[in-house]
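Action item from last week, closing it out:
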Amino acid sequence: IKLLYYTISLISFVLSFFIDSIILLLASLQVVLMIVCFLHELGHIIGCKIIKKKIVKIRVFSISLELGKMKILPNFNFGGTCTFIKDNRSSKLVYLLGPISSFFTLIFVLFLFLIFQLKILLLLLIVNTITLIITIMPYKYSDVYNFYTEVNHG
């Protein structure tokens, strides 16, 4: 019960710290989620460019770029993907550069937050930290899972 109390206290502190209006908080959160997701996927894109893999599709939330065509998907999609053509070359770098990009974004945003102490930077810091933790967990089809699968099975 103490854990529940501390969790609720932390959530209410964070919510009161951010913004007075819940609508503004949700709008800010949506923008921050899209930025964090884009920067993470940008890491995968850079990995594809470095090892010269052909990118088929990039999706961040409901915005999708497919072979030069941009689509706005009619449904709400959370997260992002960077789909590339798999060949006999290793994809380990592609899988690792998403979380690495998230890590460097975290360090950069932390630096900015320590200087400017803006609420939006704190929100960006929290969302990016959560994204980094989720993408480095070895659950099926996560970046780290795909990396380990390729290391172990070539």
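Closing note: The chain has a mean pLDDT of 83.
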